[in-house]
Specification:
six-stranded parallel beta barrel, elongated, mainly beta, 2 domains, 26 strands, two-stranded parallel sheet
């Protein structure tokens, strides 16, 4: 394996179509697509300063490195890439790529990141930016923090653990998602999604979880949430009170209390939803 050490790499396609290469302590300065069409590349303690650094690549490992803001749209059409102990400041990273594994990675400018990707593993990742994870599939996430609206729109087959997600319109149009031991804050959570399960989660959402098919909440903590579950099929168990529930289609809600149950659509049969309330230690079944 050839090694490039402590080099300033400039110009378009500086290392075009390289194979079996180690790049360490180096700077990718001005010049687009420096590693385009490259395979079996290891990058350590290096800095990317310009656009499109890793397009159409395979089998890439990046450690202790930095993608600055102008390294935007940096990793597209690339497969089997591992990044650890790094900062990706650039937006629009990862598009139509697969086999992505990020560990101890910070994405402070993650707008439109991880779009249309598959086989994604995130561990100890922090991100900030809108439209994160759109239309991606086969995702596993553990120890994750995200601040940014419209997260995971259209995502499928996803499992999340130990996350803090602050995001309006999160998990829209999703399918087959399980979220464990997490905090989710943001209005209009989960609309138009199906097979969504929240286990041991804290949820705060104005008009959240509407138009959902097969929503499950197990051992939940639901705070400051009103007009919930409209036109949804549900199995909800929460330790707390729900401010208001509106026009659920069918299922069960078990809660400490419900401030208001609103049925104002004549096509909704209220008998299809069962309520179990535990007010001051006294159980009521409606």
């Amino acid at each position: 394996m050839q090694t490039i050490d402590q080099q300033m790499l400039t110009g378009e396609r500086a290392l075009f179509k390289r194979k079996n290469l180690m790049v360490t302590n180096s700077i990718f300065a001005d010049g687009e697509s420096p590693l385009k069409e490259s395979n079996d590349i290891t990058i350590d303690n290096s800095i990317f300063k310009w656009k499109y650094p890793l397009w159409y690549c395979n089998n890439i490992r990046v450690d202790r490195s930095t993608f600055l803001v102008m390294a935007r749209s940096g990793i597209w059409y690339t497969h089997q890439i591992v990044i650890s102990d790094s900062v990706i400041e650039a937006p629009k990273t990862f598009r139509r790529s697969s086999g992505i594994r990020l560990t101890y990675v910070d994405l402070p400018n993650a707008q439109e990141t991880l779009w249309n990707c598959e086989d994604i593993h995130l561990n100890h990742v922090t991100a900030k930016g809108d439209y994160f994870g759109m239309n991606s599939a086969n995702i596993t996430i553990d120890d994750f923090t995200l601040a940014g609206n419209y997260a995971f729109d259209g995502a499928k087959d996803m499992e999340i653990r130990n996350a803090k997600i602050i995001s309006k319109d999160a998990f829209w149009n999703c399918e087959n998602v399980t979220v464990n031991d997490s905090l989710i804050i943001g209005e209009y959570l989960g609309w138009n999604s199906k097979n969504i399960t929240f286990i041991n989660c804290t949820i705060e959402s104005n008009q959240g979880m509407c138009y959902m098919d097969r929503l499950v909440i197990e051992n939940g903590t639901i705070l400051n949430t009103d007009l919930a579950f409209e036109y949804s099929t549900i199995e909800v168990e929460t330790k707390t009170s729900i401010d208001s529930v509106k026009n659920p289609i069918s299922g069960k809600i078990k809660a400490k209390d419900i401030g208001e149950i609103i049925i104002n659509d004549e096509e909704i049969n209220a008998a299809y939803t069962r309520y179990e309330l535990d007010k001051a230690g006294d159980r009521f079944v409606l």
